[in-house]
Predict the 3D structure of the following.
Amino acid sequence: MVVIPGEQAAPWVHSAAYELNATLGNVGKTVIYTETVNPVPSEQLTDLKSLVADINAGKVQWLVMLA
């Protein structure tokens, strides 16, 4: 069993989840804590135009879109 709190959960919920995962032996195995990743800011319209150009040029073999 692994305990995963929601991103917007209160700090005490994250703390409780950590303690439960530590007790269950998950930390370092099925649960690995890392530094927060900040996305690289971009101009979405420019990126979309670039993607369309790559698709039209045959440079894209697979495109997966989520949500």
Remarks:
- Residues 3 and 20 are 7 Å apart (CA to CA).
- The two ends are 27 Å apart (CA to CA).
- The mean pLDDT is 92.
